[in-house]
Amino acid sequence: MTFRTKLLFISSFMVAGAVALVTGAVSISTRRAFDTIDRERREALLTQFRDELAARSVELARRVELAAASPGVQQIAAGAAEYDRAQTEAASADLDFLDVVEPNLTIISSAHWSARFGYQNDWQIASDDWHTSEVFLARIPTPEGSAMALTAVRPVVGGKALVAGGRRLSPELLKSLGVAPGMRALLWLPPGEVIDAEGSVRDAQKLAPLIQEVRSTNREATGSVQWTPDRRGSEAFLALPITRAGSLTGVLLAGTSLSTQLGLERSILRTGVVVGASGIVIGVLLGWWTTERITRPVERLAAGARAVAGGDLSARVEVLSRDEIGELAHAFNRMTEQLLEQRERAIQAERVAAWRELARRLAHELKNPLFPLQITIENLQRARESSEFDEVFRESTTTLLAELGNLKTIIGRFSDFAKMPAPQFETVDINEIVRSVMKLNDARLQAEGQVKVEPRLELASGGTQIQADPDQLRRALGNLVLNALDAMPEGGTLLVRTVLHDGSVRLEVSDSGQGLTDEECQRLFTPYYTTKQHGTGLGLAIVQSVVSDHRGKISVSGASGRGTTFTIDLPLTQADLMVVTGEPA
Amino acid sequence: MRRTALRSIAAANAVLALAAGLEAARRPHYGGELRVEMRAAVASLDPAVVPDDPAALGAQRQWMPFVFETLVSLDDQGRARPWLATSWTHDTARKAWIFQVRKNVKLHDGSIWSPPGGSVMVPDARPIEQILRELAGARSAVVVKAEDGSLLGTGPFRIAKWEPGKAASLVAHDQYWGGRPFLDSIGVQMGRSLADQASDFQIGKVDAVEIAARDLRASKQRGTTIASTQPMETVALQFDGSRVPAPVRQALSLSIDRTAILNVLLQKQGEISGALLPRWLTGYSFLFPGERDLGKTKQLVPAPQSLTFGYDRQDPVIRPIAERIAVNASEAGITLRQGTGAMDVRLVRLPVTASDAWLTLQDLTALLKVVAPSPAADPYEAEKALIESSGVIPLFHLPRGWLLSSRVKNWPRLEEVWLDAGASQ
Prior knowledge:
The structure holds 2 protein chains of 2 kinds. Chain A has 13 helices and 18 strands. Chain A is an alpha+beta fold. Chain A has a 6-stranded antiparallel sheet. A 5-stranded antiparallel sheet of chain A has the order 2-1-5-4-3. In chain A, helix 1 runs antiparallel to helix 6, helix 6 runs parallel beside helix 7 and helix 11 packs antiparallel against helix 13. The C terminus of chain A is likely disordered. By secondary structure, chain B is of the alpha+beta class. Helices cover 30% and strands 24% of the residues of chain B. In chain B, the strands form 6 sheets. In chain B, strands 12, 13, 14, 15, 16, 17 and 18 form a 7-stranded mixed sheet that branches. Chain B is globular. The relative contact order of chain B is 0.16. Classes of the chains: A alpha+beta, B alpha+beta. At the A-B interface, loops of A face helix 7 and helix 10 of B.
């Protein structure tokens, strides 16, 4: 992963994290604010209900007192009216329920259930405090079942009877509260009726757990009900117990539709997501832009470093700023300039050293034949006056020719090294190259009087076809074999191996001689460097040159006393080089 | 002095003339239309048509004799008396009865009603009492079909207009053999609720309306002219026998506080009874018990029961009784709930259609769709059998009451009713 990618990831993550954090915080804060507002609204509704109930209680008490004082009720109490006269009186007093009862609570006339004359008024006596309570809630039996009502009891003038009057706790009461949009008031009445401003509530059993909680604790409780499969159909409730003499007579529920709240929350969340996503995108883009600006000089530095590593010491980095990166680029440029200067100086020094080594070698090589030439010529001069001149002359000329031949050979070798031709590639089997070279050395290996060197071939089976110049390859392999033989004056084992290795062919030539030191290994391929008494130091240089021309690699390994192994890795193909097909010329 | 005497004579003459005029106004005289309203909606007065609705059946039986007459009739005590037939005797073989018909009896179209030979032969060997009872029944009325398809009778009134179930107009039969009735016509409005009738009566729109039994006393106390009959209706519970077991039926009957209903709801008008027919008609109604026994109901129905209960909610007589019965029944663990469609039990009013027990039972069997008792059967046994087979539990017998304007005289015999022109309407 690049530095820019890492930087981009980090900046994007930080931006996204920050945006998510802010969005979440806003969402939670909004929800809490909504909850607070909802609770306040519901509490206000409950307060409004209490006030309305109190107002209605006062009005009811007044109506019942009026009824108790009316002539019609007094006639009923006196037994001078028809059994259903209470209906007329209830209508006059605008009461939904009216019972005129004897002091023992036997019904004389009932407005809402005229057929119950003669029976006991059981709704009035259902609670012990009916005669002391100003106004109370009671469930009143009717022919259609029963109904919850706000009720009051007053004595008929004259004290011969009592009047129990009531007004139904109807949806109208809840409607009169004038609740805010999205809110509603519900009333649970025992044994299980639930009404709202529209009438009976469907699916009221869903409220049962909340009501049960209020009934069991006799304290207010909160909860929510999901009326429809969609969460938007949910409603939050605050439930308040309505008690009479310590026992529960009803539960008032203030409900808030979560539809609006959820809609707002979703809208805020949607806006948050959009803003967040936009923020993240913008943040990422800004991060990318910033990262690009920050990493561009670093990447240039990296590219420069890669170029330098690749050998291009002329690579330079543009200095775009004066900050630390700019200083780094500047330092890089200075470093490459110094490296370039040092390399040129090194090349110059190496070139000088090579020339000195060449001169030393040339002097050394040429000095050896020159000394016999000088002796021979001096012998010839001295023998000019003697009788043996002819014989000396013949021997001297022979010697001179021999030494001149040596000189010619030495000069030829140097000339050959200087004139290494470009390789002519063709498809060859490297195993065949190995076999041919070994065959050329058979004579030396089997010559009488020579120390015994055992040749061993370990050749790969198949896949050893490569594109190479066979002559140069034979020459290089021949040099390595000769070096190996020279390294084993006491005899030993010569091992030549070919193996397929990682898309190339590996050629190994090992001897069991004395081996090389590390310093020798490092300098071994330097032209004119030799560890042999009469070597020119060009053999391995030629080998390295051939391997290099074949885009291969050569290395040497070994330790003192444990032999030496030269390893050459050659590619199977020379894709961009001209390949000569057919038999070599 | 002479002037004074003359003045006194003139004044005395004026007083005498006025007194004579008033006297003349009080005497029956012809003319006028009697306007009547009733709750029942009668489709037809044809004796061959027996209405399914009890109220319609009762009204039909009440009005039909004024249009279609029978050979014999029954008096208030149920005794047969000559009517269109003046005498009867059996043939020599005692296999048939021969009724001599009244002469000069004219049908409503003015033609003479004269059976062939001036007599009607009834080939029946039964005792004459049974035959006379049958002949006095509405189904034996004389009805002649005119060429235009209308039905002609011999009664004091003829049908001038008939809108089934809505209105009717009866006009006097000028050639009635018993003498032309005083009234020129009778206008009848049918299907009117008691409240509507009372309202129309209050504004003087009508001369005679029905009144609920419970209101008779209060109306009388207010000085209003009322007319009431012997108990002519039976309030009863009619069970669907196939759906309600006998113990539940009996328990419901025993749970009803009939006394409280009679005293409070019916204002003591009528009588408690467990019989279908009223006491005045049979004399044995006390043999059918009607007391309350809540203890026994618990034994009969130990577990709570629920029955669908039907009644006419628009009927001001039936509705309070039904509501009270529901309250009483709940004490016995029987819940009566209103429903629609087929009911387990209904509260109904059954009419007493004749002054003869057997004729009334015959109509009730048709109404209740059960097998009619044998004419030869003992009325008590026949009624007992009818109660058991029909799933009916009688509760009360109620009189029929009418509220009359002050100008209506001689009610309820319509052929003798006349209108006092001098009375306020």
